[in-house]
Amino acid sequence: MSKRRFLLWGFKAPRDLAGSALGALEQRTMDVVWERGEVTVRDVLSQFGDEVAYTTLMTTLDRLFKKGLLGRRKVGRAFAYSPAVSREDIRQAVASGLLDSLLQDRRPLLPALSSLVDAVGDRDRELLDDLERLVHEKRRALGEQER
Predict the structure, then answer these.
(1) pTM over 0.85
(2) Are 73 and 120 in a shared domain?
(3) Quick one: which of 26, 98, 116, 127 could link to 22 by a disulfide (CB 3.0–4.6 Å)?
(4) Backbone angles phi, psi at 76, to 5 degrees
(5) Helix (H, G, I), strand (E, B), or coil: what is residue 28?
């Protein structure tokens, strides 16, 4: 029986999960902040044009700050926002969350692990070697902790 990939209708593709950790406006706002480094509400507004109200962007930036994704500093009467995390940090957090949810499930994990190995192997043989090296390093570290 050959393995075929299929799409579960109504579910997001795995590659879209990293972006879905944030709402659409939050993601677009983070993209502007990552691109520019430090921004004010007006800076972001200039990228969005008339699509979004000033107060909506002000609220979005404040939420991203409260979530720990942005840092901010007072500049006159306004705030200047800068990234507190990278795109890669968010991708890694989503991946960790996904793996944690898989590991919380009491069903056998072998199919999930097998899918991971298949996906890595299909994509890049060197990445499969990296995965093997990471497993060996983790086993060695766990062995040292037991001593």
Answers:
(1) no
(2) no
(3) 26
(4) 65, -125
(5) helix
